[in-house]
Amino acid sequence: MQMNMKAAILSGTKKINIESINKPVPGKNEILIKLKTCAICTWDQRAYNGINNVLFPFIGGHEMFAEIEEVGSGIDRAQWDVGEKAAVGLLSMCGHCHYCEIGEEGICSNHDYNKIVGGLPYPGTGGFSEYLVVEPHNLFKASKTLKNEKGAFAEPLSCVIHSVNKIDLSKAQNALVIGAGTMGILHLLLLKAKGLSVFISEPNERRRSFAVKLGADEVIDPVNEDPVRKIKDLTDGRGADVVFNATAVLDVAKQAIEMVAPLGTVSFYSSIYPKELIEIDPNWLHKKMVSITGSANSNARDFQNAIDMISDGLVDPSPLISNVIPFENIRDAYTASMMPDNYRTILKF
Ligand SMILES: [Zn+2]
Ligand SMILES: [Zn+2]
Q: Which of 49, 97, 114, 158 could bridge 109 with an S-S bond, Cβ 3.0-4.6 Å?
């Protein structure tokens, strides 16, 4: 018998409604998961506000934490059984391109947010629905006692793990994180867990003191002091060994390059919006031996690392939970998530 479930359908810019759709049924080698939590990320806000191009009707949400509801035939129940909890990886990777084959599915050549995933009737990342059908490789096991709200941070933390692990930190003593939003703070927590001194540059005073509370060694107010001079003062004139830009602002991206030490690395973690260019002097790169890189998304190893670090308490994302709102009230949740002082709004199913 066909059962129904609820999903949040984005049918146009700023038009989202909870609707009843068919509940998916797991086939051979598939697992039916029941979503426990899903956070609203900046990407989802951009889809909602019409900045990211999505195909309507669209089902967003990708920072998912779930419980196994039912397993299809062929699933090893010693590995995956009903009631177990797991973070859910990105479902829209193709699994067979060059990058998927070398275990770097975060840069999948065929990645498309407008794919249909999870047994849903509409395109999207799928997390704003009560149930999804996935394959075992999409799931990353969590301890059964992990709080559902914390589990929703596996995806953003996996992206930050990817960003940090991409860089050789063996000679780095310090790191500068520009921007103390959710992703900036997750960089701070992870870099502190790795034993580095971490500086934060952030114009918002409340966010600066939040960063100090969470372990930032120094904070920079880029509006009232010259951030380039300040970082040099803090580092014997060298600059930061690693600079992560976690803001979407072009001028900050330019400044990030001026703030790095010789032999250091600048990583463009955030995408820049609107899309514009910056100039780089090749002779400066040549002489200072600076590396410039970027990072987006994550892979299966990063996901497992992330959920393990959260389960073991090595990274505690709890301070980033601004509000927990029932899934049915997703419109209120969007409004809350876009308030200026918000970190993460978590939808609870
Ligand atoms: Zn996200
Ligand atoms: Zn691929």
A: 97
d(CA 22, CA 9): 13
Q: How far is the CA of 20 from the centre of ligand 2 (A)?
A: 31
Ligand closest to the CA atom of residue 106: 2
- Ligand 1: centre distance to CA 262 (Å): 32
Dist. CA 62 → ligand 1 center (Å)? 6
d(CA 331, CA 69): 27
Q: Pick from 227, 14, 22: which is nearest to 130 by CA? A: 22
Which tens digits make up the pLDDT trace of 49-92? Answer: 999 889 999 999 999 999 999 999 999 999 999 999 999 998 99
Give the whole-angstrom CA distance, residue 142 versus residue 69.
Answer: 15
- Interval between CA 156 and ligand 1 midpoint (Å): 6
- Please, what CATH class does the domain formed by 167-294 belong to? alpha beta
CATH of 4-157+298-348, one of 3.20.20.120, 3.90.180.10, 3.40.50.1100, 1.20.1250.20: 3.90.180.10
Measured distance CA(111)–CA(117) in Å, rounded:
12
Residue entry with tokens 């969590």: 142
The reply to whether ipTM tops 0.95 is yes
CA of 100 to the centre of ligand 2 (A): 4
